[in-house]
Design a protein that fits this description.
The protein is built from 2 helices and no strands. The chain is an all-alpha fold.
Length: 55
């Protein structure tokens, strides 16, 4: 179950980051673009924290 959740979080992070770049470059919507980029980075940080081995 954890692998599925991590996979979904990674896909969401990729889509949010790509959407943020698209909003910044093509649509010139800076507020929404930066918020999407930050949300994507938070998703990647969550995956990194959850994937760390526990000793």
């Amino acid at each position: 179950m954890t692998g599925t959740i991590l996979s979904i979080l990674m896909l969401a992070g990729i889509l949010l980051t790509g959407g943020g770049i698209y909003a910044l470059v093509k649509k010139r919507d800076t507020r929404r673009g930066w918020l999407m980029l930050v949300a994507g980075l938070v998703m990647f940080a969550n995956v990194a924290i959850m994937a760390m081995p526990v000793s």
